[in-house]
Amino acid sequence: MKKVLFLFAFCTISTLSFAQWGVSYHQSNLPFIGINTQLGEKWLPEFRIGTDNYVENLGFELVANYLIKSEESTQIYVGAGARANIFGGAVITSGINYYPFNKKDFGFHMEAAPLINVESGLIFRGSFGIRYRFLKE
What we know:
This protein is mostly beta strands. It has one domain: Beta Barrel (Porin). The termini are far apart. The protein is globular, with a radius of gyration of 14 Å. The chain contains 1 helix and 8 strands; from the N terminus they run αββββββββ.
């Protein structure tokens, strides 16, 4: 039920804000795909779903990232959120998005995100990957 509420809240907030959408893929020992939207100039919430595992072991995350620095080609962010199912608990994120091409829709990212779990303790996850923004014309 928590998973459904996370997804519903994310979609509702994103739809009401008419914000810019994006998708991402994060490669790590706990890889995941993400759907995000930029709210205003500073907020980048993202809903994430684990990949490369059995369906019953899917991990779901909802994080709210705050853009510390946002330039045309570079975004630096920190954030926090929650993870459900496998390795469930709190997530603390920090990362960089880099858009090197003339059209600033496709880019790369790196992220460090400790997962705080009551049973397992602290898991430090580092990831890198690609990001695509559906830019408004």
